[in-house]
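B., you asked whether I could sanity-check this one before it goes into the benchmark set. Here's the sequence:
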Amino acid sequence: MVSMASSRFDIAVVGSLNTDMVLGVAAFPAPGETLVATRMQSGAGGKGLNQAVAAARAGARTAMIGLVGSDERGQVLLDTLGNDGIDISAVKRVGDRPTGLATILVRDDGQNMIVVASGANAAALPAGPIDAAICLASLETAVEGVEAALHGARAAGSLCLLNAAPARAEAIGLFALADLIIVNETELEGYAGASLPMVEAARSLITHEEQTIIVTLGADGVLAVDRASSRSFAAPVVKAVDATGAGDCFCGVLAAALARQAPLGAAIEEAIAAAALAVQRHGAADALPYRAEIDDALAKSRLIK
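And here's what the prediction gave me:
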């Protein structure tokens, strides 16, 4: 585990910043079908922003590396990060592109469909490594920029976490740069194919001996796989109303727990507890829990066990 002694930040998050437009629907539309939304909500989002907010609220000193436009929506996202004490000195404002925008359909059972207009997120990421014990990256920004960030983080001795989402074929070359790779079941299938059992599929992504693949399975919990073993973690039974950002919550809280030197198993359990809280609320960044809420949920789950 990376020593925290000489790091300015616990976590540097490399990723996207979006404005989320969320529409509640009774069912997802069929091709050519028009539906009337049951609710409408606008808020801060993007995988990078969500993960940074989740990590900060879980108690980690967090820096954000990403891009927004020079528009009003970009300023709102910067203010959102600042409100949670996140360092934004490595968030670049892009003058010729709008801030990223995600349209999210959320069904009554909490499942979602998301379409992202990248906007500023597709521009070149700010160069140079951030002094952090952990680098957490995802794939809603240019792969070349993520690659450079991971190279810089590894050279600086950071622990590197790659949330390989959304699944992108060109991102497979990044896997060797990560100590932990986090995917959901759909993304795992995208990288490994549908023909392998899940443990074998996860193991097929491993590129070096110390690497662990973490597969998030929603209500079915989490699977952690390394070269020698696999371990399943259960999720608490909750009534989900919106799964938007739950995976990002998991990643950010996992990174925060690892930054406190928590063992991987304990870090996964903490991240599951946080994600279970998030899915019971509407929105992405707005739904992310704070440290005290996570601790309370963990205490209750231990009493139940």
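One thing to flag: The radius of gyration is 18 Å. Otherwise nothing jumped out at me.
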